[in-house]
Amino acid sequence: MNETPAGPLAGLRVLDFGVAYAGPYSTLLLEFLGAEVIKIESRRRPDLVRLPDALFASDPTSAQRNAANPAPEADRLERSVMFHDVNLGKLSVAIDLTTPEGIAVAKQLAGVSDIVLDNFSPGVMDRLGLGYEVLHTLKPDIIVISTSAAGSVGPESDSLGFATIFNAEGGLTHLTGYPEGRPAESRDSTDLRVGSFGAFALLAALLYRQTTGRGQYIDLSAREVITSEIGDELMDFALNGRVPNRQGNHDPMSVPHNAYRCLGEDRWISIAIATEAEWHALCAAAGHPEWERDPRFATVLDRKRNEDELDTLVECWTREHTQYELVERLQRAGVAAAPTLTMEQAYRDPHLRERGAFTRVEHRVLGRRDVVGPPWRLSKTPAAVHGAAPLLGEHTSSVLDRLLGMDEATSQRLDASAGTV
Amino acid sequence: MRGKITVDTLPSALGGLRVIEVAQLAAGPFCGKLLADLGAEVIKVEPPGSGDVARRRGPFPDDRPDPDASGSFLYFNTNKLGVTADVTTGEGRALLRELLANADLLIHDLQPEQAAAWHLDYASLALHCPRLVVTTITPFGTTGPWADFKGDGMHAAHAGGEAYLLPAGAEWLDRPPVKPGGLVTDCDAGVFAATGSLAAIYHQRATGKGQHVDCSKQEAVLNLCRAILGKFTAYGVVESRGTRRRRLGNNVRCRDGYIEFMALNDPLWERIGAMMGGPAWCSAPDYQTTASRSRHIDEVNDRVEEWAAEHTRAEIYARARAIRAPVGRVATADEIFTSPHLSDRGFFAEVEHPATGVTTYPGAPYRLSETPWRVKRPAPRLGEHNALVFGERLGHSSQELVHLRQLGVI
Asked: In chain B, which residues have their Cβ closer than 8 Å to the Cβ of A177?
């Protein structure tokens, strides 16, 4: 991939103390944009996501899966797909942060970095002697971000950092699902939402540093990320004191606005009608001009009032057709429609394929992996997947030699002190 | 540019960044809001007459429609200047070009075919403004067979893979998959777009060169589903609402709503037991270990729910906090707005707007030590800054502006 032009953040260095999912995703986005990301890891206390069954932690079949596919002990921490796919292209340095020598090396690395990230519980970096006040003395223009469940200050700052919990506390769980059903949790996507906001805050701080030469400290709260992405429902409380409930796929302005069953097993299409022209186009494309003449659906208010009946009629039509056929037909008619994709369908989807949404990398233990690439296409300084995730400690010697001029014997001793498998 | 509007001595992260936004509803406007709230000057260009569709969306105070008081518009457009220009006309686009001559970044959400017809595609814009960064936010991106297909945040949730998992539970397989609540997938696209835009601006400031940042809402959501995709590519497992059963925790009904618990491991389960007053069943063989609990998760949920039914969210949360049990409230809007924690962190913004008076808005999720986030001005009324921007800054006379208004251009 050497012929790829450099990303816009080429030349920047990020020291990544991130664990699990949210923190590492912030630095993954910076890596896609060309920054050099150095993960600090330890075998003694590995990132839990490195454990082989992390991806299936909540799945009772994981034990059977692992029994059927036993990992060689030496590769125990190198077989996690979940770890791999959020740590692409990063470097891994193994040092033990419970020893003074390990902390000293971490400080030296921070001294030659532009950004330091952690998503430990609030206070951990301070207790390690790696808090912002310390790092700022070592490198006055350093940018430090700490991501935590509820932020690093405030009476609930000791909250535990589980995605299902901060999605609930943030208000999104209550608003997801059917009005008459239970609230619905989100998991992985919630962590990554938080990580994506972290990357944005870091970019803003970088621009400020580019102009003024000044660094700063960023305190990011996962719960507040979720709350700030809701919009209308919270403004209804702000303006009217109302407490809105979940509405499935329905929308206050557009009707119909739902997902409808198609031919095949558990196949669905989402359709939204925002204008009169689109309503006419839907009736025509469905071959049901009588819907337009039906007094129950005469105006948008009528359609909203009789939304459930309209949803039933639309589904009677969609269930006779396949997803992709309907999407093409409706879009050609000027109606917003999209398939509800499974991950298998997404992986094979011709549109995503043509846009190059997936990149193939080669990992020493996992072998060939196709991963989701960056969320943007930058025309001059492309964002890109630059390689597989590192093995734990893969770059200890090379990084410590290149950045700190450390001889190999010392770096190997450090690496060994970070534990063996 | 002439016509300085605010006098503010506090530094802002993005002070001096000049942004033009031609975008509606949530994804593009949230991108613009993120930048404006950190100090960028964002001039929002709306269609004259109707304005951004968010102005018709509500929620409205007392449900009385007023394009200047729509909650959706007010939230997604804080700190912006607002002008009107009909970019479907040559005169409107001439005004837009004048604005772009002095801008660093254009955010737009026009479909590629439309943008090309109006010479607002990147290739056309780069001819005149080579240093301009152009960020497009469209349902499926600007290339590929679906580039001109329409879609909103719901379509992004469904085509990006997240909806197929919601709501988790096999009992819902006869009902449609749903999007996550609120406008969250639009916001996802907006956050990614803002990040990509600033990376391109970082490069522009170093080199003087602009570029196109192409954001697809579908791929924004797909990006958040990378682990789910990993399960398929690595193990051939296709997750769905049916397989996506919670095994180690769930939300359970309590006296006044729901709580969420997460017993990831045995010590955390012990804390949940302690929170419930240490009932004997918690340590029965079926529930004692993570593996056995996950096999009996339905019974675990029922039993936790039986206990929770006797208590309120606030009581349960207080008990959980005292021993750091992994429990949260499934928070409703009132709980969020009255949270002492959020108030203590300065999360909320008091915003005064002529159409609504003083209102408390949700704020930003980050505290930046040097360049704090703040609301300096409310969302603009439709065309509020036409005279300032087109007149004072671009030098159009008031007669010209009257004429343009009569033509319906502004």
From this structure: 166-167, 178, 181
The burial of B248, by beta-carbon neighbours within 10 Å (0-12 exposed, 13-18 middle, 19 or more buried), is given as buried
Distant-in-sequence, close-in-space partners of A90: CB < 8 Å, separation ≥ 6: A16, A27, A28, A31, A37, A38, A39, A389, A390
Could you confirm whether A191 is annotated as catalytic?
yes
> Both tokens of residue A64?
């059977």
A288-323 core/surface letters (b: 16 or more CB in 10 A; e: else): eeebeebeebeebeebbebbeebbebbbebbeebeb
CA-based nearest residue to A149, from B311, B260, B169: B260
A189 Cβ contact list (under 8 Å, min separation 6): B162, B180, B221, B224, B225
What values do phi and psi take at A40, rounded to 5?
A: -100, 120
Which amino acid, residue A368? R
Q: For residue B245, give the 3-state DSSP assignment.
A: coil
Which residue did the predictor score with more confidence, B343 or A1? B343
Element (H, E) at A280: helix A276-285
Helix or strand run (H / E) with residue B223:
helix B217-224
Give the range among A317-331, B39-53, B293-307, B392-406 with minimum mean pLDDT.
B293-307
State which CATH number among 3.40.605.10, 3.40.640.10, 3.40.50.10540, 3.30.2290.10 fits the domain covering B18-224+348-406. 3.40.50.10540
A30 has pLDDT over 50: yes
B22 contacts B45 by C-beta, under 8 angstroms? yes
Measure Cα distances from A401 to A93, A358, B240, B364 in Å. 11, 34, 47, 41
Rg (CA), chain A: 25
Whole-angstrom Cα distance, residue B308 to residue A29?
A: 40
- Of A116, A133, A140, give the one whose Cα is nearest residue A198: A116
Binary contact (A260, B176; C-beta < 8 A): yes
The whole-angstrom separation of Cα B333 and Cα A172 is 10
- The amino acid at residue A389 is A
Taking an 8 Å cut-off on Cβ atoms, the answer to whether A203 and B199 are in contact is yes
Token readout for B44 is 């929002």
| Rg over CA atoms, chain B | 25
User: φ, ψ for residue A367 (rounded to 5)?
Assistant: 80, -145
Phi, psi (rounded to 5 degrees) for A137: -70, -35
Which tens digit of pLDDT belongs to each residue from B293-327? 888 888 999 999 999 999 999 999 999 999 999 99
Would residue A132 be called left, alpha or beta, if left means φ above 0 and alpha means ψ between -120 and 50 degrees?
A: alpha
| Model pLDDT, residue B373 | 94
Location of each CATH 3.30.1540.10 domain in chain B: 247-335
- Which three-class secondary structure state does DSSP give residue A250? coil
Residue span(s) of chain B under CATH 3.40.50.10540 come to: 18-224+348-406
Q: Is residue A73 classed exposed, middle or buried when 0-12, 13-18 and 19+ CB atoms within 10 A define those classes?
A: exposed
Tokens of A25: 């995703």
Residue B3: CB atoms within 10 Å: 13
SS3 A38: strand
Interface of B with A in 83-102 (CB under 8 A): none
What SS3 class is residue B323?
A: coil
Chain A touched by B342 (CB under 8 Å): yes
Residue A155: which of B199, B344, B368 has the nearest Cβ? B344
Name the nearest CA neighbour of B13 among B31, B32, B37: B37
Instruction: Report ipTM (2 d.p.).
Output: 0.96
Under CATH, what is the fold of the domain B247-335? formyl-coa transferase, domain 3 (3.30.1540)
B368 touches chain A (CB under 8 A): yes
